[in-house]
């Protein structure tokens, strides 16, 4: 992961194919204003450090670019050369980023929260739809913490029968219940000085919720069959795809436990809201799957990526990974994957949506204003479908302000 030195349109094109530690743009840049270059980089990789290099550049240019968000402005090659290794070192310290693929705008608050929470022991509640990658967030939080050298212990609260879950969490002595032939250390003790990740916490049996609440309050537990108290130094991260407030209303989840768990909430957006991450996710899954299967590397054309971005992915990142794996395996020795390779439940295939546009004026003439309105409406509707109705993100896709998009939508509605 190096700093990408951008000197022309070809090196600028490399930006979309990789995630560098930073970008250094040499000026002058033929045909582009520096501010436009900065904006282009930030659109592809939000939050990426961007520096400019122009020998004997005007002072007002430096001030303007720094105000617009540039990390540095250099007027000599030596200073720029010293900046690049520092950026690489700083990027390498965020080893937790290896768990999280993508850099879409909606994921930036998640990354910022992980950076802030990393050194803390605060309890975290991760919420998101099934398949969004809640366990990856938990592992990133653990690696970003001062507890990274200790274990992270994962418990799926739906994977064990209710009768065994308490013993699994807190441990038991020999003879504590039928079948307890020997003493066992619980998951909380296994996570001592580390992190315990309680997945699907919304499904935790009600009677065990009270015991978990005591652990969170007192930072201690007791093994089943023992009166001895075990002091705990464990960070607790919980996750759920359920609306816990709804379960509280129906008497299925303790309100006091909810507030103990929800000290710092993290919401993971569904994949349909972070569609910009799909190219990086596909690239990651292709590399991972091909290596695991001992296959030659495979690639996808841009039109295939566009088709994947246009799909809503109700199963989120997990569904995307499974779909990529199926495409890799069924494509055999072929190294290029097409939209038709990515089959969906029910036997359907991902089909790229193409917005019709006029390519020539008909012999009989045409109503230009009406045709432009139809094209605008089609493009706006496509952008809104892609973003799940989020006007701010749709405006970003279309390269306009949200207020401009809203005004256009109103004008198009009035013209109907």
Question: How would you describe this protein?
Answer:
- By secondary structure, this protein is α/β, with parallel strands linked by helices.
- It has four domains: 3-93, 3-Layer(aba) Sandwich (Rossmann fold); 105-267, Rossmann fold (3-Layer(aba) Sandwich), CATH 3.40.50.300; 272-347, Helicase, Ruva Protein, domain 3 (Orthogonal Bundle); 368-415, Orthogonal Bundle (Arc Repressor Mutant, subunit A), CATH 1.10.10.
- 44% of the residues lie in helices and 13% in strands.
- The protein has 17 helices and 15 strands.
- The strands form five sheets. Strands 6-9-12-5-13 form a five-stranded parallel β-sheet. A four-stranded parallel β-sheet has the order 1-2-3-4, with helices on both faces.
- Helix 12 packs across helix 14 and helix 15 packs across helix 16.
- The model is unreliable at 352-359 (pLDDT under 50).
Instruction: Sum up the overall morphology in one term.
Output: globular
Distance between the termini: 51 Å
Give me the side-by-side strand order of the main sheet: 6-9-12-5-13
How many strand segments? 15
CATH topology annotation of the largest domain: Rossmann fold
* CATH 4th-level superfamily of the largest domain: P-loop containing nucleotide triphosphate hydrolases
State the share of residues found in helices, binned by percent: 40-55%
- Uncertain residue ranges: 352-359
How much strand content do the residues show? 5-15%
Assign the CATH class of the largest domain: Alpha Beta
**What CATH architecture label of the largest domain applies?**
3-Layer(aba) Sandwich
Using only C-alpha atoms, the radius of gyration works out to 26 Å
- How many domains in all? 4
Mean pLDDT: 85
Structural class of the helix and strand makeup?
alpha/beta
- The DSSP helix count reads 17
Largest sheet: 5 strands, parallel
């Amino acid at each position: 992961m190096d700093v990408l030195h951008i000197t022309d349109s070809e090196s600028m094109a490399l930006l979309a194919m990789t995630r560098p530690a930073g970008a250094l743009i040499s000026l002058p840049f033929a045909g582009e204003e520096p501010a436009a270059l900065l904006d282009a980089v930030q659109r592809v990789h939000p939050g990426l450090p961007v520096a400019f290099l122009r020998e004997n550049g005007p002072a007002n240019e430096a001030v303007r670019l720094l105000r617009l968000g540039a990390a540095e402005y250099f007027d000599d090659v030596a200073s720029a050369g010293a900046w690049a290794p520092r950026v690489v070192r700083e990027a390498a310290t965020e080893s937790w980023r290896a768990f999280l693929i993508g850099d879409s705008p909606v994921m930036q608050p998640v990354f910022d929260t992980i950076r802030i929470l990393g050194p803390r022991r605060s309890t975290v509640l991760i919420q998101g739809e099934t398949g969004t990658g809640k366990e990856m967030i938990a592992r990133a939080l653990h690696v970003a913490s001062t507890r990274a050298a200790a274990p992270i212990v994962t418990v799926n609260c739906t994977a064990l029968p209710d009768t065994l879950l308490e013993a699994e969490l807190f441990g038991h002595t020999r003879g504590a219940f039928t079948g307890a032939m020997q003493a066992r250390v619980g998951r909380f003790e296994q996570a001592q000085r580390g992190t315990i990740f309680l997945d699907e916490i919304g499904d935790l049996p009600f009677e065990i919720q009270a015991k978990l609440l005591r652990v969170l309050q007192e930072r201690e537990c007791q093994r089943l069959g023992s009166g001895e108290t075990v002091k705990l130094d464990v960070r607790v991260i919980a996750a759920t795809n359920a609306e816990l407030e709804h379960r509280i209303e129906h008497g299925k989840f303790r309100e006091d436990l909810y507030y103990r768990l929800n000290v710092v909430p993290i919401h993971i957006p569904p994949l349909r809201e972070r569609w910009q991450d799909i190219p990086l996710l596909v690239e990651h899954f292709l590399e991972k799957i091909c290596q695991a299967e001992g296959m030659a590397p495979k690639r996808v054309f841009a039109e295939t990526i566009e088709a994947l971005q246009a799909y809503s992915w109700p199963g989120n990142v997990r569904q995307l990974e499974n779909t990529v794996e199926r495409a890799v395996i069924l494509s055999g020795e072929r190294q290029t994957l097409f939209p038709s390779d990515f089959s969906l439940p029910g036997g359907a295939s991902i089909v790229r949506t193409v917005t019709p546009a006029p390519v020539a004026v008909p012999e009989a003439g045409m109503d230009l204003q009406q045709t432009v309105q139809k094209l605008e409406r089609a493009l706006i509707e496509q952008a809104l479908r892609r973003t799940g109705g989020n006007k701010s993100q749709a405006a970003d896709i279309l390269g306009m302000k949200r207020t401009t998009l809203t005004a256009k939508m109103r004008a198009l509605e009035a013209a109907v």
